[in-house]
Amino acid sequence: MTSGVAGETPMARRKLIAGNWKMHGRSADLVWAERLSGLLGRAPGSEILVFPPATLRAPMASRVPGFVAVGGQDCAAETEGARTGDISASMLADLGARYVITGHSERRRLHGESDGLVRAKSEAALKAGLTPVICVGETLDQRKAGEAEAVVLRQVFASVPEAAAGRVIIAYEPVWAIGTGLHASPEDADRMHRAIREAWRSGDGDQLRILYGGSVNPGNAAGLLSREHIDGALVGGASLDPDSFAAIIRAGG
Predict the structure, then answer these.
(1) Helix residue ranges per DSSP H, 6-104
(2) Which residues are catalytic, by number?
(3) Which portions of the chain are predicted below pLDDT 70?
(4) What is the pTM for the complete model shown?
C-alpha cells in the first residue's frame, strides 16, 4: 500500500471546494446561486460543488452558473424498490448529479450507518456514474487516546470500494470539528491526509483527492488549503452564506 513509484512527480490535483447545506434551505434561498455567481464573476481555478437538500437539488441545478456542479447529500445502496423516502444514486444521476456524499458522520451517528453500508452506497454511486465523496473521521475521545490515524484508516479500507483513485473522493472530517467551531490545525489535517494517501491500497495515492471538512470558514481556509496533501474542502455552515463560500473558494486559488 504505497502512494506511488519512488522518484515520480505527483500529478497535479485540482482543488475542489464543496458546500454541504445539510438540512437547511427553502425555495427563497435559491437566490444564493445568483449571489455566488455575482461574487465570483467567472470560473475560479478550483472545481465548485454544492450539495443542497433533496428538495432544492433540481431547482438549484437550473440556477447555478455552469462551473458549479450540484450533487446529492446521500443515496440508497439499492437501485429501486420498496424503500419509502430513500433516493437512489441512479435517480440522482437522472437529475444530472455527478457527485454524492456517502458516510457523513451525521449519517453514521444518527442513522447507525456502518462502514459496510457506506461502502455499498458508494458502490451504488459508482455504478450509477456518480463520484462518491466518502467521509471518514475520528471522535475527540479517539484522538485523545492516540487512535485517530488507526480509526480513520480502518474506515477508509472498510468504507471505500476497490476503485481507482480518480473515481472516488475522500473527505477527512474529524467528528469533533463538525459544527463545533473547532478545526484541526493545517499541520494535523495535512498529516492525516498524507497518511490516507500513503496507505491507499492501489498504489496511485498521488492521484487521490482528499478534502478536509470540519468548521471550515474564511478565516482558516487559506491555511488549510495551502497544505500539500489537502485537495479542497467540504464546507458546512459557511457554505450557506454566499459571501463566506466565495471567500473560501478564493482561498483555494
Answers:
(1) 31-40, 57-61, 89-94
(2) 104, 173
(3) 1-11
(4) 0.93
